[in-house]
Write a structure and sequence with these properties.
Layout: E1 2-4, H1 7-18, E2 23-25, E3 32-36, H2 40-50, E4 59-61, H3 68-71, H4 77-86, E5 91-96, H5 103-106, E6 111-115, H6 120-129, E7 133-134, H7 149-156, E8 162-165, E9 176-179, E10 186-189, H8 195-202, H9 214-220, E11 236-239, H10 244-254, E12 258-262, E13 273-277, H11 282-297, E14 303-307, H12 316-325
Parallel strand pairs: 1-8, 2-8, 4-6, 5-9, 11-14, 12-13, 12-14
Antiparallel strand pairs: 2-3, 3-7, 4-7, 5-6, 9-10
Bound molecules: threonylcarbamoyladenylate and magnesium ion.
């Protein structure tokens, strides 16, 4: 059931969490599916609702950086520097977990992901609840993350005890994840907070996924890093804008209903079917991307064509999600 996230609803949601319930709530990135992070039974319900393998760790949401030491130990100075610079905000930090943190949350690992979300509803819920809230994105495993309460309803429906409706998420793609548990900080997932912004705070260079050894990647067990993720059910592929007319001609022989997601001007006279245009601006594009993919996915199309965004770092998180959606 979805309710407007007013004060009474937030108080009720915190009670549900205390009782081991599941509450979906808005963050600035995407909607999360929350449970009491210290309650292994409640956390197990998250995995069941999402259909997510139990060895994939969850991010624990906390109200403020002051709570870091309740969840993590041997916290490096870099963690406090990043927290100071970017929290509340779309950045998650992976640190060595405290012994008290259940393995149910960390997927059996010795590290824990932590973040302070920048959304008034999420922050009020965290304050009201008092503890940490384990929350993956509120979608079924490998599907598109929800950026509206209605998306959560569509994905998880009755599996959730309450959905707090706080409107549309402003960032639209999941948080940047930085692993600070190893000898060198490394990027696990790109997000709105850029590699450059993080490097400027750390005064060093983050290790990037493309520079890691394959074996190292496998051992990280971050589902956001699986090749197929964030995916619509409809087949999807990328195109470079100049090749569209040719591509459409070739496809019209075999493919019946085509959907198009573009951000630059279309050549006049092209009528490929169901067309959505996103803004030619990475922040606005990211905010609307998942809604657009969902809308296209509802049109019973045979194929979704997605215009390849620029490859510069401002579009890094978007390129990451699109390459996974089209794998
Ligand atoms: O923006 C976000 O981070 C959203 C909102 C709800 O906060 N949450 C989110 O959660 O995207 P989820 O579970 O869909 O993605 C969390 C990612 C996964 O790729 C997971 O593997 C990684 O964080 N992660 C969590 N804890 C980790 C750990 N200890 N080590 C490595 N990766 C971890
Ligand atoms: Mg997710």
């Amino acid at each position: 059931m979805s309710v407007i996230a007013d004060h009474a609803a937030i108080v009720h949601a915190a009670q549900l969490l205390q009782q081991g319930g599941l509450v979906a709530f808005p963050t600035e990135t995407v909607y999360g599916l929350g449970a009491d992070a210290m309650n292994a039974t409640a956390v197990a319900r998250i995995f069941a609702a999402k259909g997510r393998p139990a060895d994939h760790p969850l991010i624990v949401h906390i109200a403020a950086a002051a709570q870091l030491s309740a969840w993590a130990e041997t916290i490096p100075a870099a963690a406090y520097a990043l927290a100071e610079a970017f929290w509340p905000g779309p950045l998650a930090l992976v640190l060595h977990k405290k012994a008290s943190v259940p393995y149910a949350v960390t997927g059996g690992q010795e590290t824990v992901g932590l973040r302070v979300p920048n959304h008034p509803v999420a922050l009020q819920l965290l304050q009201q609840f008092g503890g940490g809230i384990a929350a993956p994105s509120a979608n079924r495993f490998c599907r598109i993350s929800p950026t509206l309460a209605a998306h959560v309803e569509e994905e998880l429906g009755a599996a959730v005890d309450l959905i707090l409706d706080g409107g549309a998420c402003q960032v639209g793609v999941e948080s940047t994840i930085v692993d600070l548990s190893g000898p060198q900080p490394r990027l696990l997932r790109p997000g709105q907070i850029s590699v450059e912004a993080i490097n400027a705070v750390l005064h060093c260079e983050l290790l990037l996924p493309e520079t890691l050894q394959h074996s190292t990647q496998a051992e990280i067990r971050a589902p956001g890093m699986l090749a197929l993720h964030y995916a619509p059910d409809t087949a999807a592929r990328m195109y470079v804008s100049g090749e569209l007319p040719e591509l459409l001609t070739a496809l019209q022989q075999s493919t019946k209903k085509i959907g198009l997601l573009h951000y630059t001007e279309l050549t006049a006279g092209l009528m490929p079917g169901y067309v959505l245009r996103l803004p030619n601006n990475p922040e606005q594009y990211a905010q609307l991307l998942y809604s657009a993919l969902r809308e296209l996915d509802h049109q019973q199309l045979d194929l979704i064509l997605i215009e390849q965004p620029p490859s510069n770092s401002l579009w890094r998180a978007i390129n990451d999600r699109l390459s996974k959606a089209t794998h």
